[in-house]
Amino acid sequence: MKTAVGLFFTFLWSSAAIATKFGLYSTTPMLLATSRFLIAGILLFLFVYLISKKYPWPTKQEWKTLFVLGLLNTTIYLGASFWALNYVSAGLFNLFVTTNPFIVAFLSYIWLKRKVSLQEWIGMIVAAVGLLIAIWPSISHSEVKGIGLLILGVGMISMAVGSVYFKKANLNLPNIVINTWQVLIGGVVLIPITFILEKDTYFLKVDYYLVGSLIWLVLVISIATMLLWFYLLKQDAVRANNWLFLTPIFGYVLAAIFLNEIITFYDIIATVLVLSGLLLSGNIAIKSIKKFN
Fold this sequence. Notes:
Blueprint: H1 2-23, H2 29-52, H3 60-84, H4 90-96, H5 100-112, H6 118-140, H7 146-169, H8 175-198, H9 208-235, H10 237-242, H11 247-258, H12 265-281, H13 286-292
Protein name: EamA domain-containing protein
Keywords: Membrane, Transmembrane, Transmembrane helix
Subcellular location: Endomembrane system
């Protein structure tokens, strides 16, 4: 069951960059991000507190944790992701997501005293080699802007910190309540940031690109996929982030189909190494796969 959830989460997560690219045809990255989070947050709030009416309100202490999660997982991570996609390809973005397991493993070792096994380290190193092989052609030919990589790096670190912080906080709230406030708080904080960054470059064109992008990003990514993410995090923060090693595989395929991005020989080799890394780390167990099939 966990293997099935992990695979489904990774597929959906990797599609976010594709949907964002379509949205950027019609508006600026930060405005698209802010619109996504505010719409998702409002819809979740209406369902949780006005339609369902069975979920609790956060306590005073939980509000502090939710604010930090909203800042880390929504404002900084996803805000930076949207901004970076203005400079880098969807395929490269999904490759960078694979840096998170290393950061999470290191932070979990220090912060949560969670021992990272030799098998997990070997698996992550093998997957990282795949990442370097895939990214090298773009860097060597100067196809990627440095600002894009810097923004991506800030976002990935924020997501990793948010993952470990969530596990350590151990909130006694349903996942849907956590996600509601995380998205809503993060979206509200993004409003002034968006104004500052895009006051001179702002544009908005309401068309099928924008509408389709927002529908997918709000309903599928911000709501459904984030609920899967919190489920995986509650099991194990390190193993949950190890699933992100699969995002380049789904990401490259989706980018090739929907954005006509080219899959190179380097990408294929990288995919093999990433899959090997996941198998070596024990995140995808052979027995689990056979049972699932």
